[in-house]
Amino acid sequence: MNATTQLHPDNQSDALRAWWMPFTHNRYFKAAPRMVKSAKGAYFTLEDGRRVFDCLSGLWCSPLGHSHPHIVEAVTRQIQTLDFAPSFQMGHQAAFDLATRITQLAGRPQDRVFFVNSGSEAVDTALKMAVAYHRARGDAARTRIIGRERGYHGVGMGGISVGGIAPNRKMFHPLMIQGVDHLPHTYNPAQMAFSVGQPEWGAHLADELERIVALHDASTIAAVIVEPMQGSTGVIVPPKGYLQKLRDICTKHGILLIFDEVITGFGRLGTPFGADFFGVQPDLTTFAKAVNNATVPLGGVLVRDAIYEAFMTGPAHMIEFFHGYTYSAHPLAVAAGLATLDVMAEENLIAKAAALAPVLEKGMHSLKGEPHVIDVRNIGLAAAIELAPTAGAPGMKAINVFQAALNEGQMVRFTGDIIAVAPPFISSAAEVEEMVEGIRRALRVVPV
Ligand SMILES: Cc1ncc(COP(=O)(O)O)c(C=O)c1O
Asked: pLDDT tens across 193-202, in order?
């Protein structure tokens, strides 16, 4: 065995050597691998045969459960008919149909949809659209983008520039886009720990946008991008009135408001989009994940008609927006999308998510007082518990709770010292309650 083929001391097997895993502590994982074998409905089966509940719907992306027969059938049929079609200068009807269905679901039938393959691509696309929109209207100085601390907008250079999670940014600074500023995040445990749903405190934090506008001048700002609910950083719920304030300030200054709905889109809050839940409409909406139950990678941007029209001014034979991906509107992804929307409608799954939300809320808040728990947060069919970190080993507590929960048959998500859950919409109330009890038992076995 030479130096390059030698196993890392922590690795048990050469079979795990080649894949450099994403957002994973590779050495820790490879020393004690957790392998998934198959999935059906709301459950994964692990390599060792254990069946575990999918507490986060995959990575917030499979709310209909795995291998839904309707989606499997639609994708199988599609691959036999049209496995791929170029989307540059050619089209296929299903992509137009899915775009229409998405605008209808969003209650914005005049809007347009641009397809991409992931949330990260959706974000970078929306940022480019915002800057190019102002330029197309002769407002070329509007290039600055305002993101938010603790925001997660994927891992593209644009997304990490406007994002606000330090480890995702710090190694890449020279490559990140310039001219970005950040709103403060809205999490303040002293004011809002154990809030049920939206915290009462904190709407005034949106006024920070006025301060940023005063600093840079509105004429230099293209857009503000926020997740309506900050999911990946650990379910940070917007204070009551906060998003409306952001909307009002953006409107006042001619700044576009982008909602990154990669997690909240397609039912997670019990409404089609987060915009519906909060009663605040953005100008652009990024989406991915649940749009097609994550069966085949798909994302997109929902765009106000007026923004689209601003591009449609040059000669008709000229490309209006020099942007797109080889796999934009991939036929398999689109087929899965249409099938997903059919299933959501036929099985009334967004209403089901709304009906399950109080069960999740009650269960998760019952964990207050259990060992380690210093906060519980929830909104729609999403919740998180914040754990007291182990001294000198941040993140370790959540790893231990994750492992203990897995032993209880519950596959939760951990990030930092936060445990997040967002069960599939197809879950029963009993399954959600059992998930909470599994987490409770896990909290009790992990040493303080
Ligand atoms: C709000 C938000 N935006 C963007 C992304 C990035 O999506 P992807 O991992 O598909 O690139 C995510 C992923 O979790 C997200 O939560």
From this structure: 999 999 999 9
